[in-house]
Amino acid sequence: MKIRLLSTALLAGLALAPAVNAQEFDDRWYVTGSAGMNLQDNNRGTNNAPFLALGIGKFVNPNWSVDGELNYQNPNFDANQDMNWSQYGLSIDLRRHFLAEGRSWNPYAVMGLGFQRSEEEYDAFPSTNSPGEREDGNLAAKIGFGVQGAVADNMLLRTELAYRADLDDQSVANPSENWFGDVLASVGLVVPLGAKAVVAPPPPPVAAPNCADLDDDGDGVNNCDDKCPGSQAGQTIGPDGCPVPVSIDLKGVNFDFDKSTLRPDAVAILSEAVQILQRYPDLRVEVAGHTDLCGSDAYNQSLSERRATAVYDYLTSNGVDASRLAGPNGYGESRPLVSTPQTLPECKNETNRRTELNAQN
Known about the structure:
- By secondary structure, this protein is α+β, with helices and mostly antiparallel strands.
- It folds into two domains: about 1-190, Porin, CATH 2.40.160.20; about 235-360, CATH 3.30.1330.60.
- The chain has helices spanning about 1-15, 265-280, 295-315, and strands at about 30-40, 50-60, 65-75, 85-95, 105-120, 130-150, 155-165, 180-190, 285-290, 325-330, 355-360.
- It has an eight-stranded antiparallel barrel with strand order 1-2-3-4-5-6-7-8.
- Strand 2 (about 50-60) and strand 3 (about 65-75) form a beta hairpin.
- The radius of gyration is 53 Å and the shape is rod-shaped.
- The model is unreliable at about 10-25 (pLDDT under 50).
């Protein structure tokens, strides 16, 4: 009989619950309500009877919960159905939950300690106060096991089988007994109170800066491509971040004898020089004019200055800022590239009749 009732309670609870995820730790207070069958100790002389229980509890960590629970049962006596026997009590129950990831239902063990009060009627004939009534209270201890699982977002179902030792040594029906053992089979609901705390997800990790977006030395080349970190300001930097020597070869900018006007071939060369200067905005150059060895020093000095000025004017009129140009400076015949006699016609040398752009630090 007892096994049949227990099996029925457990199977009914499992049949009511869909598959859900294993319980997560929820530290809200909850209320419980349960109903079941109290299988009375045969020595009481009472029928088995249903019982009701109400409680309140809380998970103290993912595996342990504590409940305070009120219970009530009102069985009849076997021998005299007109006699009343009722019992109510309070217990503090500690449950150990055995959780497993991905499992819908999780078993638990329960241990409890409480106080049970009994009200027992008995035949006091021939006393005029018959039936008499005994009211007495005593300690009780409980041990058992159960299964618990979620049946909704905010509700758990609990099925439980427990043995309660009732330390009642004042029974009128069986005065020789010092305690009674009852079996409790129940199904109940656990309903958390209030809204569940929402745990904010951890902030996403801060992504490390991309080297392509950084230029620590400020040379205009990102850290990924910069093979020479720490380049000094004012240097001319190549696409790999390393300083590069820049030379502007104007050896082809030559002048006709005794002339300071730019020839067409010189204009083409100067156009390329403008492009180089635009490509390297930090580059500064000196505009320097020279002559061959024909003529007096004074005349050649003036002629070299006019040639330097012609190149200077061309550069500034084509977008090169004057702040990047030193000069125009004339050096006359003092810096020939080819050594020649100072007499005609040998002194006529086109290589020496030139204007140069000399890179400056």
